[in-house]
Amino acid sequence: MPYQVLARKWRPQTLxxxxxxxxxxxxxxxxxxxxxxxxxxxxTGTRGVGKTTLARILAKCLNCETGITATPCGTCSTxxxxxxxxxxxxxEIDAASxxxxxxTRELLENVPYPPVQGRYKIYLIxxxxxxxxxxxxxxxxTLEEPPQHVKFLxxxxxxxxxxxxxxxxxxQFHLKPIPLELISDHLHYICKQEQxxxxxxALNYLSKAANGSLRDxxxxxxxxxxxxxxxxxxxxxxxxxxxxxxxxxxxLMKALAAQDSNQVFHAIHLLAEHTPDFSNVxxxxxxxxxxxxxxxxxxxxxxxxxxxxxxxxxxxPEDVQLYYQIALLGRRxxxxxxxxxxxxxxxxxxxxxxxxxxxxxxxxxxxxTVAESPSWQEIxxxxxxxxxxxxxxxxxxxxxxxDHKVILQLSAxxxxxxxxxxxxxxxxSLSNYFKQAMQLDIIITAAELYTPAKKQEQEQVERLxxxxxxxTQHPKIKQLIEMYDATIEVSLL
Length: 493
Ligand SMILES: Nc1ncnc2c1ncn2[C@@H]1O[C@H](COP(=O)(O)OP(=O)(O)OP(=O)(O)O)[C@@H](O)[C@H]1O
Ligand SMILES: [Mg+2]
Ligand SMILES: [Zn+2]
Known about the structure:
This protein has 493 residues and is α/β, with parallel strands linked by helices. Helix content is 50%, strand content 11%. Strands 2-3-4-1-5 form a five-stranded parallel β-sheet, covered by helices on one side. A three-stranded mixed β-sheet has the order 8-9-10. Strands 6-7 form a two-stranded parallel ribbon. Helix 9 crosses helix 10, helix 12 (250-257) packs antiparallel against helix 13 (261-272) and helix 13 (261-272) runs antiparallel to helix 17 (340-353). The chain binds adenosine-5'-triphosphate (ATP), magnesium ion (MG) and zinc ion. Zinc ion (ZN) binds at residues 64-66, 72-73, 76, 78-79. Magnesium ion binds next to helix 3.
C-alpha cells in the first residue's frame, strides 16, 4: 500500500474526532440533532485548522442513510462514497482554480434538479474568496432562494474578501488556531497509533512550530519520522527545524546579565555550532524574555520553571523590557542584514551597549536675546545680597533713585516677603553700593511687575523649551525616539 501522508490518513471522520473547535462542534451537533439546518454555512479560519474537514463531515451528517445526524455511521454506502470522494451529490469546488463566472454558472445550472443519490445536494466551495465578482453575483442569486434540497458549505481563510451580501446569507463559524497543548496531545496520540517512539519535549517543539495549524503539525511529524528513522528526539527536531533548545540560550543570557561581552560572543559561537537559523534563535530569545518578565511580576505560586526563576533573578525588570524591545526590532530587521548571524550579533551588541541608564546628551542651546529692562537688573547682582534678602530684591522693580533715596516697587502678592529686617538688609547693601547712607522706600502695587525674578523665570522656561526643541532635532535622540518609543525629559544643568 502506498504511503499516505499523516494529515490525510488521520483526517477526522466525525465531529468527535476533531481536535479543538469545541463550541462549533457543539452548536452543529445540536442543530443537526434538532434538524434545524441552515441552507448555507461559511467556515472561516487560518490554514489547516479543520475547515474543509468540517465541511466534509457535515456533508456526511446531512446525507448519512441513518438519517440526519451528528454522528454519521461511516459505514453506509453514502458515508463511504463521501469518504472516498465519489458521492454524486457532493460538488466540491476549489474556487482558487475555478474563478470564472462561466465555471460558477455551469456549477449552479444543475442546482434546481433534485439529488440523484442522497438527501441533499451539497456544494462545498473551498477558498471561496477567490471567486470573481461576476461569480459572486451568480452565487448570490442562488443563495437568496436555494431549493430545499440544496446546501452550501463555503470555506475561506479570508472572509474579509467576501462581499457583505454573501456573508449576510451564510451562517458563519470561525475556527480558531489549535492550542499548542491540544496539538501536542494529538501528535502524541498519532505517534502511539503509528508505533513511533517520541519524546514529549520534541513533540512540544513540533507543535510550537506548527503555529496553531494541525495540518502543519502533521506534516512536520511526517518529516520528523523520516528524519529520525522512526523515532523522534528533541535534538533531531532542533536540527530539522533550525531551532534551538531554550536551555542552550541560558549561557548567553547569563553573560548578558553580567554585561560580559566576551562571554556573550563565546556563547554565540557555541550556538552557531548547532547551525541554527538565527531568526529562530532570536524568536526563542524573545519568548525567553517574555517568560522572565512574566515570572518577575506574577507573584502567585505557580509551577514555574525553576531555571526561568533563576534567570529572572539576574535581570532588572526594566532591563528585560528594553532587551525584549531590542530583540523584537532585531528580528524585524534581520531580513536586511547580510547574514542572520551578523544580525543576531548586532542585536546582542545593542543589548550590551544600551543598558537602561539615563542617557545624558549635551545639546547646545541657542543664546537668549531677552530685551533688557533698564537699571535694576544691573544693580541687583552687585548688591552683595543672599537668601531671603536677595529674593525680596529680585521681586522688586526700581521706581526711582533720588538724592539719598531709592524707591522700589513690590507687587501686592509678594508683600508677605516684606519685613523690617529684610528691608534693613537691603537698605544697608544699597548704601554700600552707592557709598553713602541711603533711604529705602518700598511701594506696594497691585500691578504685575517685570522683576528680575520674573525675568529669570521666563528665561528658564524659554531655555527649557529651546533645549527640548534642540533635543528633539538631535539626530541621535531622534533615532532613539523612533527605535524605542522614548520620551524626552530635559533638565537644565
Ligand atoms: N481540528 C482538527 N482536528 C483534527 N485534525 C485536523 C484539524 N484541523 C486540521 N486537521 C488536520 O489537518 C488536515 C487538513 O485540515 P483541513 O483541510 O480541514 O484544513 P483547512 O482548515 O481546510 O485548511 P486550508 O485553509 O489550508 O484549506 C486534516 O486532514 C487533518 O489531518
Ligand atoms: Mg481547506
Ligand atoms: Zn452513514
